[in-house]
Amino acid sequence: MAFALSEKSNYVVAIDFGTTYSGFAIAKNYPGAQIECNRWPIISEGRDWHKTPTCILFNEKLEFDSFGYKSEDKYADLQSRDEHENWYFFKCFKMKLKKEEEKLLKERNQWELNDHTDTKKVNAIIVFKGAIEYMKNQALSSIRENDRESDINESTISWMLTVPAIWSDVAKNFMRKAAEEAGIPRKKLTLVYEPEMAAVWFVNENKMEVPTGTKFILVDLGGGTIDITVQEVLQNNKIRQLIPAMGVACGGTTLDECLTHTIEKKFANNIDMFRKNEPKKYVKHQRKIEFMKRSYGKSEGNFILHVSKKLSRSETDQPVTISEEEYKSFLAPVLEQIDNIIAEIEKIKICKQVSHLVIIGGFSVDARVKGYLLEKYQSKYTIITPGNPDLAVLNGAVLFGQHESLITERVCKCTYGFAVFKKFDETHKIEKKHQRGGVTMAKDCFKVVFQKGERVTVDKSYKEIPVFDEFGTDRVVKRKEPIVIYIFSSEEENPQYTDDPYCKKLCEMKMYPPGGEWPSKVKGKVRFKVAGTEFEGELYDNQNNKQDECVFDYLI
To answer: Which pLDDT score is estimated for 427?
Structure first.
C-alpha cells in the first residue's frame, strides 16, 4: 500500500533486494536532492563496490551474525576451522519466492528455506527479515552519521523496497511482512517494481532523447529475473504503463552457473576436496569468476581465468580458457527468452508505435549481450544503453520516493473481484443453484471489480464494493469482529465463477468496526484500488465519510 508517498518524510531510502546482489541508496526528501549509493567494502580483496552479495549468516542460536561479503568471509573462516556445522548460511535465496511459490501458498507462515548445505531448515521470514533489517540499520546509521541535528528513525524515512514485476501478489505480501517485522513502519513502506523504477530513472536522466509521446520497451537484465516493461513518456517526465510487465525467472545467474560448471568440470577430480579443504580460497575463486566476468563483458577475445594452484594441483596458478563462441552459447538461453518476450510485445496493438529499446540492469554491462540486442533490433528501434545500468533501479526508486506522481497509469495483469449471488437462469451451471430467502439463486458468481487489461490511474482509480450486514440478537457477539470480503483473482478477462480453473481465492479484505463495535445495521462501501503495487481499500459509511482503512490478509 502506497502510504509512504502521502506523508512527508525527511529522507527517502531505497533497498534493492536482489537475487545475487543487494544495496541501498539514500537522499533527502526533496526534488533534486543528491542520491548516495552505499559502498560495501570487500575486505579480503582490498576494494569496495556499490552492492554486496545477497547472503546472510546466523549463529547456532539463529541470531543474526553478518550479511553480504562479511557473511561469506565469516562462513568460509568457520568452515576452515571446521566450526560451521551448527551455523546457518543462506545465499541467493530471494528467487525461492518464485521457485517455491507453491510451497509458500501451501505452508504460508510455516514456509521454510534450506540452508546452503541443504541439511538444515529455517523459517523463511527469519531469513528475509534479517537481510532487510540489516540494510535498514545500515541506512539509518549512514543518515545519522551525516545528519546529527535531525531526529532520525524509521518513521521519519520513506522506505522503497524493490520487487520483480513478475512476482505474485502473495510473494509481494511476504516481502511486506518481512520488512514490517524488520522494523519498517507499515505506513512508511512502499513496494516498487524493479523495471518501473529503472524506467523512472531512465526518463529523468535522458530527457532530450525521449521527448513527450515516446513509447519505449525497457529490458531490465538482473541476476535472477528478466523484467520487461513498455512505457510511454508523458509531460513533466512522467510515465504510464502500456501493458502489464512481462518477464521470466532467469538472468545473470544462468551465465554464472555455466561459467562455474565449465571451469570446475576441468578440475572435476579436485573440486570437491578444494571446496572442502580450502573454503577461503574457494570463496576467492568464486569472486574471481565474478570479477573476471564483469571485466570480460567489456572486452573481446577468449575468457581466461587463472585458477588457484591448490585447485589445479600444480606448482603455479593455471589458466583456464573458455572460447568466445562457448561463452556466447552460455548467453543463448537468456537471449532467446528476451527475443520471445519482445516478439509477444510486438504483436500487441498498443505497442505498434514503440520507437525505443532501453537495455538496463547489472547483466546488461556484458558487451556480448548488448551487441546481440543491438544487431538484432537496431533496424526496428533506437537502442539506448544508459550509463551505470546496475544502479538504475536504486536511483529510480529514490526518485520515485521524492516525486509521488511520476508513474500515472498501470494496466491490470489479472481480473479481480468477489463472490456474489445472482438470480438463477438457464445460463448458470445447475450445480450452482441455491435457495436463498425463498429465491432460486446462483452461488459463487464472480463479480468483476477490475478487469484484466483495464487501465487504472494511480491514486485515483477505484471501484466501490457495497457492504451490508445486520447484527440481530443471534449475532450480537459478531459486532466486535471484522467484516470480511474474499478477493479473488483470475487470469481470464470475464470469469463466470470464483471456483473456475483459472481463479483463485487471493486474500481476505478485512474491515474492522469503527469505534470497536458495528451498529446493528451496517450499510456502507469499500473503495477498492489496484493501481499501486499492492491492494488498497478504504471503508466509507453511507454518508460518504471515511471510517477506516482495510487490512488485506493473503490466504493462499
So the answer is: 94
Instruction: Report yes or no on 222 lying in a domain.
Output: no
The DSSP string of 141-176 is: HHHHHH-SSS---GGGEEEEEEE-TT--HHHHHHHH
> 55 lies in a domain?
yes
Asked whether residue 260 is domain-assigned, the answer is no
CA–CA separation, 310 vs 209, rounded Å?
52
pLDDT higher than 90, residue 168: no
**Whole-Å CA distances, 248 to 91, 95, 164:** 20, 11, 10
Alpha helices by DSSP H, listed for 150-270, are: 169-181, 194-205, 252-265
Please indicate, yes or no, if residue 463 is contained in any of the structural domains: yes
In the predicted structure, residue 62 carries a pLDDT above the cut 90: yes
Q: Choose the final residue of a domain: 140, 174, 193.
A: 193
Q: What is the mean pLDDT of residues 81-89?
A: 95
Task: List, in order, residues 6 or more apart from 494 with CB less than 8 Å away.
Answer: 415, 448, 451
Q: How many residues does the chain have?
A: 556
- Count: domains in the chain: 2
* DSSP-based three-state secondary structure for 106: helix
The count of C-alpha atoms lying within 13 angstroms of the C-alpha of 511, restricted to the half-sphere facing its C-beta, is 28
The type of residue at 303 is F
DSSP state of 110: G
Residue 125 domain boundaries: 4-193
Return contacts of 276-283, CB within 8 angstroms, 24+ apart.
278/80, 278/308, 278/310, 278/311, 279/75, 279/76, 279/77, 279/79, 279/80, 280/44, 280/73, 280/76, 280/77, 280/80, 281/308, 281/310, 281/311, 282/76, 283/44, 283/72, 283/73, 283/76
> Which of 155, 172, 193 is the last residue in one of the domains?
193
Give strand pairing partners of 88.
Answer: 58
Residues 341 and 480: their CA atoms lie apart, in Å, by 50
Please report which helix (H) or strand (E) contains residue 287, including its range. helix 279-296
DSSP string, 317-330: -EEEEE-HHHHHHH
12: Cβ contacts below 8 Å, ≥ 6 apart: 26, 27, 28, 29, 157, 158, 160, 398, 401, 402
> Tell me, what's the pLDDT at 32?
86
Compute CA distances 87 → 142, 326, 506, whole Å.
29, 38, 36
The three-state secondary structure class of 85 is coil
CATH number for position 132: 3.30.420.40
Write out pLDDT tens, residues 389-444. 999 999 999 999 998 789 999 999 999 999 999 999 999 999 999 998 789 999 99
Report in angstroms the alpha-carbon separations of 533 from 12, 118, 389, 396, 425. 18, 33, 23, 15, 38
